Amino acid sequence: MCEQEAKQLFSAMVSELNKAEQIALCGHVMPDGDCLGAMLALGLALRQMGKKVVFYSPDPVPELYAFLPCADEIHVELEQQCQFDLFVSVDCSVPDRLGHFQVLLGRAGRVAVLDHHTGSVPFGNTYLNLPVCAATGEIVYDLLRWLPVLVDEDIATCLYVAIVTDTGSFSYDNTGSLTHLRAAELLKLGVKAAWINKRLYEEKPLVSLQVLSTVLQSLELSGCGRVAWMFMQRDTLHRLNATDEHVDGLVNYPRLIKGVELALFFREIEDGKYKVSLRSKYYLDVNKLATLFGGGGHPRAAGCVMEGNLEDVKHQLLQAALPFLKDE
Amino acid sequence: MCEQEAKQLFSAMVSELNKAEQIALCGHVMPDGDCLGAMLALGLALRQMGKKVVFYSPDPVPELYAFLPCADEIHVELEQQCQFDLFVSVDCSVPDRLGHFQVLLGRAGRVAVLDHHTGSVPFGNTYLNLPVCAATGEIVYDLLRWLPVLVDEDIATCLYVAIVTDTGSFSYDNTGSLTHLRAAELLKLGVKAAWINKRLYEEKPLVSLQVLSTVLQSLELSGCGRVAWMFMQRDTLHRLNATDEHVDGLVNYPRLIKGVELALFFREIEDGKYKVSLRSKYYLDVNKLATLFGGGGHPRAAGCVMEGNLEDVKHQLLQAALPFLKDE
To answer: Which residue range or ranges hold the DHHA1 domain (chains A, B) (predicted)?
Structure first.
């Protein structure tokens, strides 16, 4: 893309932001690093321009991201007296995913959308959705070039967190050459990347490792070696005094095994009812597989809920998975 | 550094490589991704220039790196009839770490050293050691700019593996702005980064996870929450049919815990004898701590061997660690 085309791409958003004086920024439910990082970076930049900025998140900021500059200024509840002439939906292009802040869409003078997720229907006055970007933080990074803003260390830190979390530390296939170029620039601006990575990935609650230890004991591998699974009974969380957040990501462990294409995690949520997380490594479309059981998701990460005892549920899923596995 | 200075920095090495016709490349004992990636990238480039290249490694190539282009051409044994006029020590500037290939230093017409490790004494005819680089792969990347070589996908893949492994996926504090710039260029050259990351980090032997599961059950946290440890008894490996390589990196798990600065892993190697791995997160100098028990290493990763029963050994280490921990 040439300079002229890039400027064109951002012009409507730039003009929308320039015009507004009081701006509300809001991310999606269950905010992640990209959502929060992109929102805070944009807000800090707009404040530099003299705008009045309010941050909203329909769900509380996970403690993991509390170190982000101004994370403590993010409102979870709506203040009735709050006034603004522009509402920006950040990392979110599905109104439902704004949670209870969806009501603000009707109350705002103007609405802008800034996102990189696919599959949404455009809404608002200005809609900029670039799925080619690995993170909304990448879009904000580019956007700031066209605003009268100095990208300081705080803004750069927010953008780095957005990018590093949504690319799996530059390992997912959404990571492009431009992703690394942007990271290079952010490091030059003073981002303490090593410290941030420790904050993000080496500050887990003890109970997370206790849950991991317990669940790993259930790890099994199919005869063919291409499917691996683990399970967790309902009382485990209670016994360990753990909550849902400590279970996040456990399904990635069976995927780590050599030769495994399909990883499954069965979690009992009620008597005879299992929430199943499905992950694949190179080729298997777990979205299609989960659809067979009324679930869905993405090609490499999906989920469904199944009823029956553990052995039946497992057997059903493994049988259904067989046609999806390539002969090797 | 300006272009002229950069050219100057590499000029002796460039001239050494240009002059030679038959070149032996050799890495260090227990080769890692940087050692192998840098060596293979340089060798492939030299072959493009019409040179005859032989690859040596004092220890076998770990299966993890078998996917590297030409990894199967790396010799572990010395062929007596082998002739060469230049020997290049890659990622290694301590002759001892060339293992049994150290003898080649005396048999080569010329010797060159290409490395990024600190603390060595220069040897050979041309010595290029740049500790400012995160990986020897970064030095080879820069070096290739001054050689009549087209960096193809194979060479780029080797360089990417060198860089991604020695920077902990761009997370360690050796990762600089230039590291990301080089990665950006390598991705542009066709490196399949996502696939490589899966090969490197998601193809573990099942037994590694079984060892992890067993050892995690021993996880404990000190009263102050700043020290965490795990241990492994001698029969565990035998019982799980595991080997040393399956234990690598386990000490990183206690370090993942929030608030933990010092992580310890006690591994029984003989009756009443423990090999202790020490890791720290932000500030504690584990090299100094390990030195108190006759060991050593780096400020964030060190080791020592201690005698006694597990409780005594643990108590001694924890007592010694106290003065190293900051009051919080």
So the answer is: 240-321
A229: nearest Cα among A313, A326, A324: A313
Structural domain that includes position A290: 206-324
Residues A162 and A282 in one domain: no
Looking at this predicted complex, what is its ipTM?
0.92
pLDDT confidence tier of residue B2, bands split at 50, 70 and 90: confident
Report pLDDT for A328: 66
Query: Which residues make Cβ contacts (< 8 Å) with residue B45, sequence separation at least 6?
Result: B140, B144, B147, B149, B151, B155
CB B267, CB B275: distance < 8 Å: yes
Closest residue in A to B192 (Cα) is A173
- Give the B window 3-32 contacts with A, CB below 8 Å: none
B193, with CB counted inside 10 A (0-12, 13-18, 19+), is buried
B89 plus B220 within the same structural domain: no
Residues A25 and A167 in one domain: yes
CA–CA min distance B214, chain A (Å): 8
The total domain count for chain B is 2
What chain A residue is nearest to B217 in terms of C-alpha separation? A213
Q: Contact, A161 vs A186, CB < 8 A?
A: no
- Determine contact, residues B140/B38, Cβ cutoff 8 Å: yes
The reply to whether residue B216 touches residue A216, judged by beta carbons under 8 angstroms, is: yes
CB pairs < 8 Å spanning A and B? 126
Do the Cβ atoms of A215 and A256 come closer than 8 Å?
no
Which of A170, A211, A279 to probe the B interface (max B CBs under 10 A)? A170
